[in-house]
Design brief:
Elements: H1 4-13, E1 20-24, E2 37-38, E3 48-49, E4 53-56, E5 70-77, E6 91-95, E7 107-110, E8 114-116, E9 123-126, E10 136-137, E11 148-150, H2 158-166, E12 171-175, E13 179-185, E14 189-190, E15 201-202, H3 205-215, E16 219-226, H4 230-240, E17 245-249, H5 260-267, E18 268-272, E19 277-278, E20 284-288, E21 291-296, H6 300-318, E22 328-333, E23 337-341, E24 344-354, E25 357-362, E26 379-383, E27 388-390, E28 394-400
Parallel strand pairs: 5-6, 13-16, 13-17, 14-15, 17-21, 19-24, 22-25
Antiparallel strand pairs: 1-12, 2-11, 3-10, 4-6, 4-7, 5-9, 8-9, 18-20, 20-21, 22-28, 23-27, 24-25, 24-26, 26-28
Helix pairs in contact: 1-6, 3-6
The protein binds adenosine monophosphate and magnesium ion (MG).
Length: 406
């Protein structure tokens, strides 16, 4: 039996990031850019006004013997248009924010520092001297043509999307999303729309995993449920082996019908199949052909916990992320954890901020078959291996499931 850390290390070592593809800009959030993003234009593309005001030659703004200069207004430029003539000595042009600076002008005086006679005024009185480039946003001030703006490996969020938009990246080179095959196992497992019959339970895990895979940014494909026979498993694995990752649930323990490991050994390899943790000791990792397979335990809570611990980092690595793991923070465990575990225990809990520290309250009975222990859980309190109990008010580490990876 290996430790959680060793298991994670051994899994991650076998996973590489997937190939590159292009996606429309508005579908790129959460993906990672696969190439350096270069500015193909200066941004802003042209010198423009930072204010509503008058474009002028700065030397024309100097007062003569204390009298503010009065300039002739020869026209105006709105944002989106260009001036059809130049600003010459003794003249000015009305400009709006974002309008290109007319030729001849080197400065803009904001409207509040002038006097003029309404929108059609033919004159403007300049009430303060302005320096060259006053209120002028030069071309390329933000980004210049040829500059690397984002390095490959950058995760795309809303702000990156804004930058890609201004640079004209209608399609973005990204690491593609993994395609994940999700396979249930067990003669007892029926689909959600079937009525319960004696001995049968509904398939929780495939749906739980489908949603968890989506949340990790990958594509999920439910391939149904294999019966507990070698033939049925072989057939399902044949199909599953065309995906980037296979996730199974159940059938990896030591029962008579736990056949997933047998098929792994037959058609690929088993890297390990037990981890010193609870819930979720029977986790198998290996390959079917060259496709990595993560065999998660059958109990739905174990499936959920082991996916967060191992499946999610795998999918992040495949997508080119470098930050793979959820942060762990110190919390005060309000209600304690009484049951001794020899294995590392991941206790479902709700963590929230209280005055000046984080407080965890466990979600009740922690049996790995009790799905209600997942409700309201936004964290796992980590109880170290070795029969440790946490008294109420003890401090422990919690893995924050709803915080971004670090
Ligand atoms: P196993 O490891 O196959 O013995 O499964 C362990 C437990 O998980 C058993 O009680 C199974 O009935 C249950 N189980 C296995 N697969 C699923 C599933 N897809 N949905 C809900 N429970 C399952
Ligand atoms: Mg089973």
């Amino acid at each position: 039996m290996i430790s959680v850390e060793e298991a994670l290390e051994r899994i991650i070592a076998e996973i590489s990031s997937l190939g590159e593809t292009r996606v429309p800009l508005s579908s790129s959030r959460g993906l990672v850019v696969a190439q350096d993003i270069i500015a193909h234009d200066d941004i802003p593309p042209f010198a423009n006004s930072a204010m509503d005001g008058f474009a002028l030659r700065s030397q024309d703004s100097r007062s003569q013997n204390g009298v503010p200069p009065r300039l002739r207004v020869t026209g105006g430029v709105a944002a989106g248009y260009v001036a059809d003539h130049a600003v010459e000595e003794g003249t000015a042009m009305r400009v709006m924010t974002g309008a290109p600076i007319p030729p001849g002008a080197d400065s803009v005086i904001q409207i509040e520092l002038t006097r003029y006679d309404g929108p059609e005024s033919t004159w403007v009185e300049v009430q303060q001297e302005v320096a060259p480039n006053n209120n002028v946003r030069p071309a390329g001030e933000d980004m210049h043509k040829g500059q690397v703006i984002m390095q490959r490996g950058t995760e795309i969020g809303p702000w990156e999307i804004g930058i890609l938009a201004t640079l004209g990246y209608a399609n973005v080179p990204v690491i593609r999303r993994p395609r994940v095959a999700i396979l249930g196992t067990g003669d007892e497992v029926i689909d959600v729309d079937e009525p319960l019959r004696p001995g049968k339970i509904r398939n929780s895990n495939s749906y739980l995993l489908e949603a968890a895979v989506h949340r990790a940014g990958a594509e999920a494909h439910r391939l149904g449920v294999a019966e507990d026979t070698v033939d049925s498993l072989r057939e399902k694995f044949r199909e599953a082996a065309t995906y980037d990752l296979i996730l199974t649930s159940g059938g990896v323990s030591v029962g008579d019908f736990d056949l997933v490991k047998d098929i792994m050994a037959e058609q690929g390899n088993i890297n390990f199949w037990r981890i010193n943790m609870r819930p979720g000791k029977p986790v198998a990792f290996g390959h079917i052909g060259s496709v990595p397979l993560l065999g998660l335990p059958g109990n739905p809570v174990s499936t959920a916990v082991t996916f967060e611990l191992f499946g999610r980092p795998v999918l992040r690595k495949m997508q080119g992320h470098t930050r793979l793991l959820k942060p762990q923070i110190p919390v005060v465990v309000e209600d304690g954890v009484r049951d001794r575990a020899m294995r590392r225990h991941y206790v479902r809990a709700h963590v929230e901020w209280h005055d000046d520290h984080f407080v965890a309250r466990t979600t009740g009975n922690q049996g790995s078959n009790l799905m209600t222990s997942l409700l309201r859980a936004n964290a796992f309190v980590i109880v170290p291996e070795g029969g440790v109990t946490l008294q109420p008010g003890a401090t422990a580490k919690a893995m924050m499931l709803d915080w971004p990876e670090v």
